[in-house]
Amino acid sequence: MQGRKISLKTSEHRWIKKLTDLTTLLDDQSIADILLVWSGFKPGALVEISWTPHAAISREGFHKTVSDFEEVLRKLRLQYALKKNYPKTIRTRTAYTCIARDERMLKKLTAALGEEDKKMRRLKIGVLLGYPKTALAAFANNKQFNSRDLPQPVSKAKEFKFLNFRLSQNWQEESGYLREKAREVKRLSPELYARIVKAPS
């Protein structure tokens, strides 16, 4: 899916920068997913908002950062259903915050999370997260193409740093999707793009 190819306004740059700075709350892939929803590249995103007593951020800092996060989402006019894993323990099931560009898509995403049939739930979520069609079956069936079988020059390509779905046997087509994804992230936030590319594999 292509993004809106918007010309970023000064105010949008500011809120995008605020989002990319929320690294005590979100990992870089989650930040990229939110930006891709905003640009129209992805229909929706699921992100984990968690705090544990051993976190690098205090309780007060966590709640303040969550408030900052909500402000950014509102300023970017994104719809969301916030779920906080607070405090997160090994016994609790992870709850995911749903993010979408409109209320209709948000309702679809929250409904998909509640689907009882595991395979159908994975399939619906994969569609709503914008995964390539060729990768949906691999995700729904919880099967993944072994990335060690990829030619080494391919597996070392920058676009594979943006992989956060299950590859299938059609990995060539999916690598094209990853290239588009990487380009869109770079367009929206060169700083975030550089962080993801430089991160250890």
CA-CA gap between termini: 25 Å
Q: State the major sheet.
A: 3 strands, antiparallel
- In terms of DSSP E residues, the strand content is 5-15%
> Using DSSP, what is the number of strands?
5
The topology string of helices and strands comes to HHEEHEEEHHHHHH
Number of domains: 1
Integer-rounded radius of gyration = 17 Å
Estimate percent helicity. Answer: 40-55%
> How would you describe the shape?
globular
- Outline the low-pLDDT stretches: none
Kindly name the structural category. Answer: mainly alpha
Number of helical elements: 9
Strand order of the largest sheet: 1-5-3
Structure description:
With about 200 residues, this protein is mainly alpha-helical. The chain has one domain. The longest helix has 18 residues. It has nine helices and five strands, in the order ααββαβββαααααα. The model has no long low-confidence stretch (mean pLDDT about 90). The strands form two sheets. The protein has a three-stranded antiparallel β-sheet with strand order 1-5-3, with helices on both faces. The protein has a two-stranded parallel ribbon with strand order 2-4.
What descriptive keywords fit this protein?
201 residues; mainly alpha; 3-stranded antiparallel β-sheet; two-stranded parallel ribbon; 9 helices; 5 strands; 7% strand
Condensed summary:
The chain is mainly alpha-helical and 201 residues long.
Topology:
Layout: H1 10-20, H2 28-39, E1 44-47, E2 49-50, H3 59-75, E3 79-81, E4 84-85, E5 97-100, H4 103-113, H5 118-128, H6 133-140, H7 152-155, H8 171-188, H9 190-198
Parallel strand pairs: 2-4
Antiparallel strand pairs: 1-5, 3-5
